[in-house]
Structures
1.
Amino acid sequence: MARVETTEVLAEMVANVMTLAVGVGDRVVVGDTLLLLESMKMEIPVLAETEGAVVAVKVTVGDVVQEGDVLLVLSP
């Protein structure tokens, strides 16, 4: 069985999850907005850095995430 590499999308700072723009099964390309975070009254879009399918969403709207938390998982 071939091993499929996945890509974890991580939080870069402490923030609140404002919106989710994708769900499990959605295909994304580089530059697509995956979700929107809010920190210190600033909205921070989290963009796809690789192309693939969303295989897991690890957060929900309203969650507070810490730096390094996994937000989403993508698979090629």
Note: Strands lie at 7-10, 15-20, 27-28, 33-39, 42-47, 52-57, 64-65, 70-75.
2.
Amino acid sequence: MKVARLIKPGEILLEEVAKPQVKKGTEVLLKTLYFGICGSDMQIYHGLHKYAAMPVIMGHEVAALIEEVGTDVSDYKVGQKVAVEPQIYCGECYPCQIGRFNVCENLKVFGVHTDGFNAEYVVCDQKYLHHVPDDMDPQILALVEPFAVGVGSAKRSSRLAGGNVCVIGAGTIGNFTAQAAKGLGAKKVLVTDLVDDKLNYALECGIDYVENTSKMSLKEAIEKNFGKQKADVIIDCVGMPIIFEQMLEAARPSSDLVVTGNYKKSVTIEMPLIQRQEISVLGHMMYVREDYTDAIRLLYEGKVNTEKIISKVYDFDNYPEAYLYWENNPQDVMKILVNVGDK
């Protein structure tokens, strides 16, 4: 079978290897239909991801079909489509015991710390699988993982329901977070970005307000659209120190700041503002199983606008070209999919 292995930064090798075998009773053999490429994959590709292994078979966003099941697998059968939760957790630490597998003290992620789904076939344990409707479009199925990030991000604050929510960043995760916030009960949602095309698409997705913050500050954008109540929740889907500074400046007393963007640099925090205004800063990491369930349901029911999310689809043989396209056309990319087995 064919795999795509990142040998070193900027070099992906397509190679033939032996098809993996089911060795444990709880394992399944998956045939990859599509996998997605995301911003963290780009970081790994460039050697900028602090914790990624190398060489590594990347890929953590996947639509798959069950090819074979182990002797102890009873909830899944050959021929079923499945979503795969790519978090590898120990199941023994305290976060795992309370269902927060996303912050397992020994967490690894398929395609980051160990080989993932940039391959024709992958073996994994059944505990990472999720049932999906038989007629779910495999390209939409490949969007479950990134949309689950948005669902988990929106649900991180207890102030979401009936609240004003500002999402910073109109890329894939920002768009999905804003749509999830709408679908999960926010009163009004504002999205900010520097790219008008992505902001316009957010409006097409039913988002209430958008603002280009190259033309006004985040604080001004929030006050313009939410008035005196301002934002109950501000969600950072970008991950830059300047963004956190702007969030803190724009927050009102008793706001929640949710950090979803992947920060690569330390942030200087104005601690008196947080303490004296009782601002809550909430870290957010990926998703829990309930977020995956919500993501599958909302996507399948057509509650999520995905019309312009998939920017381009490559065949597996041309997979390395996808990274070159993204590098040369960053403003045009929301999500790139790779067709592996949907022939």
Note: DSSP finds eleven helices and 17 strands in the chain.
